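ARCHIVE CARD
Drawer: 12
Card no.: 0347
Subject: one protein chain, sequence and derived structure
Cross-reference: see card 0346
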Amino acid sequence: MNSRTANILLRVGIAFAFIYAGISGLISPDSWIGYFPPFLQDTLPDHGILLVWGMVEIILGTWILSGWKIFWSALLGGLSMIGVIIFNFSLMDILFRDITIMLAALSLAASAYPHKNVETR
């Protein structure tokens, strides 16, 4: 398998996780609201949080899938997963998969990082 195919498979896998979670959060919000930190739940209405976050996840997943400026989309995906993990660390029995998604996204970002060609003398 060549690196282009591996890159596409990695993007599809990461994008699926974000798009699925975004749509699922919009369809069955009661299953997802508990993952938001209490300070957000106390500040914003549950419906508003889920609507905004669901749309962010769908857009982010679509952006990752597109491959356009993949460094930035994958980095944002990895950072968002870090936030989910930090605020829900006590739920590690459920969130251990999110560590995989986070590392896959950060790996994709690292592979797309804009390296400058440095000539060795």
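Annotation on reverse: The CA atoms of residues 15 and 61 lie 4 Å apart. The chain has a mean pLDDT of 92.
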